[in-house]
Amino acid sequence: MLGRLHVTADHAASYSDPISVAAGECIVLTGRSDLWDGQLWLWAHSADGREGWVPDGLVAGRGRDSHLREAYSARELSCRTGDILTGLRALNGWVWCRDASGAVGWVPARCLTAA
Q1: Which residues span the domain enclosing 29?
Q2: Shared-domain flag, residues 99 and 66
Q3: How far is 73 from 68, CA to CA, in rounded Å?
């Protein structure tokens, strides 16, 4: 689901300072996990102390050797029904979007439809 998207349900960002890590950066997995819309998410802490959900498919290694295969930010984009966004990447039931002001972040795919 990429390109021009129509927001069909309001979404408010859950965290004000979410985890954001570089490719290869070590993370600490807490053992907490969640299945969200059929996708596995793992709760992680980064070296800078921030924490948040990361998609299981981006995690390499386990235990002390856990790191991310690519750069990842858990930043969400708040949006309202009727907004038009640009979908840039889809991952684990979420779409990385840009709004008209240039702000970027994840929005649940279930809140979006092709415009």
Answers
A1: 20-73
A2: no
A3: 11
Could you tell me what percentage of the chain is helix, strand and coil, using 3-state DSSP and rounding each to the nearest 5? 10, 55, 40
- The SS3 call for residue 30 is strand
Q: What is this structure's pTM?
A: 0.91
Handedness of CA 97, 103, 105, 111 (dihedral sign): negative
Confidence category of residue 62, pLDDT binned at 50, 70, 90: confident
Question: Which 3-state string (H, E, C) describes 75-86?
Answer: CECCECCCCEEE
Same domain? For 64 and 97 the reply is no
pLDDT in tens, 94-111: 999 999 999 999 999 999
Whether residue 26 is found in the same domain as residue 65: yes
